[in-house]
Design a protein that fits this description.
Structural class: alpha+beta
Mean pLDDT: 75
Number of helices: 36
Helix content: 40-55%
Distance between the termini: 82 Å
Number of strands: 9
Low-confidence stretches: 113-129, 491-533, 700-704, 719-745, 755-849
Length: about 850
Amino acid sequence: MSDTRRRVKVYTLNEDRQWDDRGTGHVSSTYVEELKGMSLLVRAESDGSLLLESKINPNTAYQKQQDTLIVWSEAENYDLALSFQEKAGCDEIWEKICQVQGKDPSVEVTQDLIDESEEERFEEMPETSHLIDLPTCELNKLEEIADLVTSVLSSPIRREKLALALENEGYIKKLLQLFQACENLENTEGLHHLYEIIRGILFLNKATLFEVMFSDECIMDVVGCLEYDPALAQPKRHREFLTKTAKFKEVIPITDSELRQKIHQTYRVQYIQDIILPTPSVFEENFLSTLTSFIFFNKVEIVSMLQEDEKFLSEVFAQLTDEATDDDKRRELVNFFKEFCAFSQTLQPQNRDAFFKTLAKLGILPALEIVMGMDDLQVRSAATDIFSYLVEFSPSMVREFVMQEAQQSDDDILLINVVIEQMICDTDPELGGAVQLMGLLRTLIDPENMLATTNKTEKSEFLNFFYNHCMHVLTAPLLTNTSEDKCEKDFFLKHYRYSWSFVCTPSHSHSHSTPSSSISQDNIVGSNKNNTICPDNYQTAQLLALILELLTFCVEHHTYHIKNYIMNKDLLRRVLVLMNSKHTFLALCALRFMRRIIGLKDEFYNRYITKGNLFEPVINALLDNGTRYNLLNSAVIELFEFIRVEDIKSLTAHIVENFYKALESIEYVQTFKGLKTKYEQEKDRQNQKLNSVPSILRSNRFRRDAKALEEDEEMWFNEDEEEEGKVVVAPVEKSKPEDDFPDNYEKFMETKKAKESEDKENLPKRTSPGGFKFTFSYSASAANGTNSKSVVAQTPPATSNGSSSKTTNLATSVTATKGSLVGLVDYPDDEEEDEEEETSPRKRPRLGS
């Protein structure tokens, strides 16, 4: 027999009577030696792994449904289904199954699910009647009727015959008349039998019977029968709830009577399925599939009828956006749209496409923009749910709207900025709404779902828009919470109308005459925890973690846009302030942001990190963590291990030159020793290269004055930048008051050179047992342009317990004489290493700033 492969989805039925998708693959029918028989095999189309291996058992009942489904039970509690992409594939596999079982492929069920004794009794019945003979519909026959209905449920063939008999004789309406009589007579036994009968008829799973039972004439009596469950001491009051408690709200009067009837019917049938009927047993799980389909198609019909009535929808939109509409009415309108969109999920893809296009044409996005900015929490929540449906359906549609809107509106009222503001101002302590909105923002800025056309690229256009108009809103809480600038905080609070809590640890008093205290917080990082502004409020920390997660996503998926923004705002320096947070999850978010940047292995980022000395707060956090073996410790070690394994030379040199003495005592991992080894190997290679250069060239290299060397350095930077990107980046507009941020990275470094007094020098300062902190000293002479003396480590004052810190010189000294000779990085053991450092393209000369 040929091995025919067809594309299918494999489903299994879970405990909640829902089908779980087990994967997509290709099905074949072949002989399997281990199973000793013909079997169904499904191999995953992604990797060829085996999704299903099922022997075609001669006694297993296979059912063919809807032309493209084959359903069967492997064991007592294990149901399987194959959903075919094409009818032809389903027919072919069905023929194979029927061939193994010796059945005609025209049947829809290969086996009858009744036991042998029942089958024998059934076969002995007179063949003159193809239908089941129903007892007369009388009160004294109710028990007999109940037994009959219950007995046929195990046999598909007898269920079909009973359904046909009930339909032909108008039996259901007669039963409901008996129900009214029993209720009037308070015949409890009869009511209990009627419960069993009506429940059994529902389990016959026939749409034609449902049409009768759920008609306006019959449905309330059907609900009444289902109130009298024999297992309950007192009957439930479902009819009272449906007629008195449940209220049908018409936000706009519905004139179509058929539509009104369909809405009422769907609500009541959904109530029967979800509330009244008990959870079916294992053997009854498939009995209500038609009931689910009945509700499903009703919803499709409701959505279609509403969608076609443009006058109705236009009126809804008009009232939704009308300022005169009162809050209660608007809340009902938004809830209507939320349910409307939820119903639309039942539509087929092409119909759903038409549905959302209709909403877009009527102005759903401008309406959402208005209601999402309202103070009513329920309205905002419902509007967010509607927005999520739209983003899930078509991110491009939302992006196109906001870009067109930007040409006519201010940044503050743009839809995406409204969404960001709602995320920032979420009052939920667990930030449930903020998490949902963050996910929607991520979808909108994800380049993977952006379209590229011949004339224009959605990715470049939208990202230019987002970074120019929206990024400053997203990063405002982050920049504010890592700033000591009171004006900046006041601006943030005023702009977002939200009372943020900035909890600051009391700072130790520092003399204003000390060099470090004259440097603004924006220009130093990794300062002592005691003088760092850092959010201690848990809700604020959660929000900053969400923002960092989005920024990390940007680093991974956006190229020059996020790089330009990070440089302009000196963003990584501000993020690393959060390494001092008492909330470890926030410190880890900050570290993850830096790890993603380093993971790109972009030399432009690497120069930014080394020139700004941005490893310092990370190493401070590692030392502060002490000997604790926790996630923070592991994450920091992994960061340095990545640099070692990937052999990122510029970062390796910076770490070893500036921090190795503080890290060499960490021996439980070989990471830092490995970095030192890599560094020394690179130095040896540079030595060999340098030795091959004539000595006259080496000596001439040191006869340039400081100005010439500085010009060469700038030229080197510029050449690297041209090589790296060769992309023109649209400048990020500075729409927020952040004067302390330079316009670009080069200006920042020039400003820093003017401010700093001399080269940074790291010295350990004991802040707690086993922990060291790096501090910096700045020489005024460097800022004035004069030659500075070598910077040496200063001994810190004694600690409160009387012990003093050991003095360790962690920084390399920088020497510059008054002549034209300019010294580079000095190492006490080898003078020629200075020359090597100068010639290395990856080692930055550490000159006095």
